[in-house]
Design goal:
By secondary structure, the chain is mostly beta strands. The chain has one domain: 7 Propeller (Methylamine Dehydrogenase, Chain H). The protein is built from no helices and 28 strands. The strands form six sheets. A seven-stranded antiparallel sheet has the order 4-5-6-7-8-9-10, with no helix packed on it. Strands 11-12-13-14-22 form a five-stranded antiparallel sheet, with no helix packed on it. Strands 3-2-1-28 form a four-stranded antiparallel sheet, with no helix packed on it. A hairpin with a 4-residue loop joins β20 and β21. The protein is globular. This is Target of rapamycin complex subunit LST8. InterPro entries: MLST8, Quinoprotein_ADH-like_sf, WD40/YVTN_repeat-like_dom_sf, WD40_PAC1, WD40_repeat_CS, WD40_rpt. Belongs to the WD repeat LST8 family.
């Protein structure tokens, strides 16, 4: 399978799609709960599905609908999941207030880090030695795996708003976070010796309501934001202007860098409320240029405040909340998952819907896409 595309949500199913035809090629039942997040292993062998309390690991090439392994240890909804670049371990975040690292061979917990409040997302830094997580208390934390502790606690100045999503550039240069006020925060990540230094770059208003997902493209030229306002937006990443503020802008705000706790707290905090890019060459997706609906026009609404992340386009056509998104390996396409039951494949150059994936009976809230060529 050169292109693996799957979606899931509140109808308790995981669906695999043929990207070209839009046909659902396989459906896996997930009766225990809704599925909150999906992640495909770098070798394309396994799919991790995060639900309530547990993560189930499925064999992508097998027709067996049962999971090959279940990671059971959280006490609330699992909100984030990511694989180590070689698949040796997996990290998860949860509303129970913890971030856990799992051995993917045995399903056992290797490490447990505590936020103290529900955790909304977690990603792995490309160096594979750090984790970045965010929580409902408005914090972004960086965990140093070699030191086994929190090395940075980032608190957006003057705000105590839940941070819904974080994303790290594939080259490790940028960290972006989006919160429930519709704001995006950007930090420059500088690697010095064995220490990561973070420099605040900018804050800008991306949406006028909840941001549900932020995601940097594999080529680090675009930032996608998904929102409760029924849209996804694509922002240009300008590497020259993100280093400093432009003359027309006020100085970049001081996003407080709080010293990390001296040790890792181990006691979990239960709050069970309901709710890895690779560098391999991509499969050529130009064959997706099939007849498509008329291009969706860009919105006339503009973000008023100056920003080194100018708005490229607003992807309109979703009927409800847009929960998740995934870039193609060549950064030319974006798949979105929406509460209106649909997943959509967008060609970013033409801002048009190339395919619409119809089959879920309730909201589609997560998507995973891997169209890289394995070496």
């Amino acid at each position: 399978m050169s292109v693996i595309l799957c979606t899931a949500g509140y109808d308790h199913t995981i669906r695999f799609w043929e990207a070209l035809s839009g046909i659902c090629s396989r459906t896996i039942p997930h009766p225990d709960s809704q599925v909150n997040r999906l992640c495909i292993s770098p070798d394309k062998r396994f799919l991790a599905a995060a639900g309530n309390h547990a993560v189930k690991l499925y064999d992508i090439k097998s027709s067996n609908p049962n999971p090959v392994l279940t990671f059971d240890g959280h006490t609330g909804n699992v909100t984030g999941v990511a694989f180590h670049c070689e698949g040796k371990w997996m990290v998860t975040s949860s509303e129970d207030g913890t971030v856990k690292i799992w051995d993917t061979r045995t399903g056992s917990v290797q490490r447990n880090y505590t936020h103290g409040v529900p955790v909304n997302d977690v990603v792995i830094h490309p160096n594979q030695g750090e984790l970045v997580s965010c929580d409902r208390g408005g914090n972004v934390r960086i965990w140093d795996l070699s030191e086994n502790k929190c090395s940075h606690q980032l608190i957006p100045e003057g705000e105590d708003v839940s941070v819904a999503s974080v994303t790290v550039a594939s080259d490790g240069t940028l960290l972006c976070a989006g919160n429930n006020a519709g704001n995006v925060y950007v930090w420059r990540m500088v690697q010095t010796s064995h220490l990561t230094t973070l420099l605040p770059v900018t804050k800008f208003t991306a949406h006028n309501t909840y941001i549900t997902r932020v995601l940097l493209s594999p080529d680090v030229k675009h930032l996608a934001t998904c929102s409760a306002d029924h849209t996804a937006r694509i922002w240009a990443v300008d590497p020259t202007s993100t280093l400093t503020s432009t003359p027309s802008q006020p100085p970049a705000p001081n996003y407080l860098l709080t010293p990390a706790p001296p040790h890792v707290l181990q006691s979990p905090h239960n709050n069970p409320n309901n709710p890895a890019n690779t560098t391999n060459p991509p499969i050529n997706m130009q064959a997706l240029h099939a007849p498509a609906p008329a291009p969706v026009p860009e919105t006339s609404a503009k973000i008023a405040e100056p920003t080194p992340f100018p708005l490229e386009t607003t992807l309109m056509g979703h009927q409800r909340w847009v929960w998740d998104c995934a870039f193609s390996a060549d950064s030319a396409y974006l798949v979105t998952a929406c509460s209106d039951h649909y997943a959509r494949l967008w060609e970013l150059g033409s801002q048009s819907i190339i395919r619409q994936y119809n089959g879920h009976h309730r909201g589609a809230v997560c998507v995973a896409l891997n169209d890289t060529a394995l070496s």
